[in-house]
């Protein structure tokens, strides 16, 4: 099998090396040289190298990226946003292969090579959105991986038939099914969670539950999820997304919940929104509770914001949580790359032999410099193929 060498790069800002790529994986890392040993050589010019970025919470089926500007509308509540989206999405051709492709191109341009995307499953679109996302992803020929979370944005129990759609999605290959605000959306947290966990256990899939509810209402639902995760033996397969309440609870209650989340093997995903209560990130890190970062939706009917750049999301996380030291700033970048491997079912995602050949080069002195300046991606390799040069897509 022919090898390619990415020569003269600095992994995580360290000493210059050559990274050897073969069969979509990193096959070896050797001291920097000028040789190609008979294979193709890509000159890295001494640039800083990072693993491909991982978006652990996206909605690639929802965006109007690439379409004419869509003005923000509807009521500014979760229920209001859901209603507005349902009323307007068909007129914008959402979901579709074209709009999903436009989002994935932006992700790649910014160095994201793996995505965990919630894809709407409801009585209006059925499973069509999942098919569109799969078709759009396949066209990139392995340059970007997308793991699908079948997501009931409009609720579960209040929409009879949605549980059956989630079950069908799991049977058809979705790795994960989702839930949303069991208390405030469905107003029946026990029924929603029991239904979701039954499918997850029977179909051997993961769960990723959006929880926007605050304070004690949020904490109550964490407890329900912890109980069911332990009972179903789903450690390592359950994620709470957003989870705003965790940063709002009294310290003693929060610490007890963190211990319970650790013992249950539950992870967290956050988009680090401005104005939210900071997560107890260091206590989570010390307990080994995974944290994944994501863009959420970008330019969709919920919000006009976002550009798909995970390095910028990592910067938002750092600023929201008051990170300052080089080690802390480096940790934020790790959350958007190597530490997020489990969210896309990868055993390892790093600049190391055996890892996927997903690599991002930036012109930066070190990792903290790359984080705070968010420079353009000079080169992006996804699945072993060059997909971006000097900030522009070449696929």
Name the descriptors.
Urease, subunit C, domain 1; TIM Barrel; nine-stranded mixed sheet; eight-stranded parallel sheet; 17 strands; Amidohydro_3; hydrolase activity, acting on carbon-nitrogen (but not peptide) bonds, in cyclic amidines; Cytosine deaminase; Metal-dep_hydrolase_composite
Describe this structure in words.
The protein is α/β, with parallel strands linked by helices. It has two domains: 4-51 and 351-393, Urease, subunit C, domain 1 (Roll); 53-344, Metal-dependent hydrolases (TIM Barrel, Alpha-Beta Barrel), CATH 3.20.20. Helices cover 32% and strands 23% of the residues. The protein is built from eleven helices and 17 strands. The protein has helices spanning 78-88, 97-109, 128-138, 162-171, 189-203, 215-232, 251-264, 281-287, 310-320, 326-335, 367-373, and strands at residues 4-11, 17-22, 25-31, 40-43, 48-51, 53-58, 112-120, 145-151, 176-180, 206-211, 238-242, 266-270, 291-293, 359-362, 379-382, 385-389, 392-393. The strands form two sheets. Strands 1, 2, 3, 4, 5, 14, 15, 16 and 17 form a nine-stranded mixed sheet that branches. It has an eight-stranded parallel sheet with strand order 6-7-8-9-10-11-12-13. Helix 5 (189-203) runs parallel beside helix 6, helix 6 packs parallel to helix 7 (251-264) and helix 9 (310-320) crosses helix 10. The protein is globular and about 65 Å long. The mean pLDDT is 96.
């Amino acid at each position: 099998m022919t090898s390619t060498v990415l020569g003269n790069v600095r992994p995580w800002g360290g000493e210059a090396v050559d990274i050897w790529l073969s069969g979509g994986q990193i096959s070896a890392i050797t001291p920097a040289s000028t040789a190609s040993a008979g294979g193709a050589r890509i000159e890295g010019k001494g640039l800083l190298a990072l693993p491909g970025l991982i978006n652990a919470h996206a909605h690639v089926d929802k965006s109007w990226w690439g379409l004419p500007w869509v003005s923000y509308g509807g009521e500014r509540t979760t229920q209001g946003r859901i209603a507005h989206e349902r009323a307007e999405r068909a007129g914008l051709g959402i979901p579709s292969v074209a709009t999903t492709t436009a989002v994935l191109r932006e992700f790649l341009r910014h160095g994201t090579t793996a995505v965990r995307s919630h894809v709407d499953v409801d009585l209006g679109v059925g499973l069509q959105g999942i098919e569109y996302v799969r078709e759009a992803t396949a066209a990139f020929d392995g340059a970007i991986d997308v793991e699908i979370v079948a997501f009931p944005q409009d609720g579960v129990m209040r929409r009879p038939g949605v549980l059956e759609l989630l079950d069908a999605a799991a049977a058809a290959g979705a790795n994960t099914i989702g839930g949303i605000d069991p208390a405030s959306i469905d107003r029946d947290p026990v029924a929603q969670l029991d239904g979701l966990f039954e499918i997850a256990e029977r179909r051997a899939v993961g769960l990723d539950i959006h929880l926007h509810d605050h304070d004690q209402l949020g904490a109550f639902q964490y407890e329900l999820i912890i109980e069911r995760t332990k009972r179903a033996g789903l450690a390592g397969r359950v994620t709470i997304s957003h989870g705003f309440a965790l940063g709002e609870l009294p310290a003693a209650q929060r610490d007890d919940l963190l211990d319970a989340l650790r013992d249950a093997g539950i992870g967290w995903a956050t988009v680090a929104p401005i104005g939210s209560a900071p997560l107890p990130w260091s206590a989570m890190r010390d307990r080994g509770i995974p944290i994944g970062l994501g863009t959420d939706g970008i330019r969709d009917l919920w919000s006009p914001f976002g550009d798909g750049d995970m390095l910028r999301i990592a910067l938002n996380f750092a600023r929201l949580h008051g990170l300052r030291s080089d080690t802390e700033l480096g940790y934020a970048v790790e959350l958007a790359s190597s530490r997020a491997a489990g969210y896309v079912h990868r055993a390892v995602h790093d600049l190391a032999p055996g890892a996927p050949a997903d690599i991002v080069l930036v012109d930066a002195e070190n990792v903290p410099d790359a984080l705070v300046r968010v420079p353009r991606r000079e080169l992006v390799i996804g699945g072993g193929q060059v997909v971006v040069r000097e900030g522009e897509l070449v696929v």
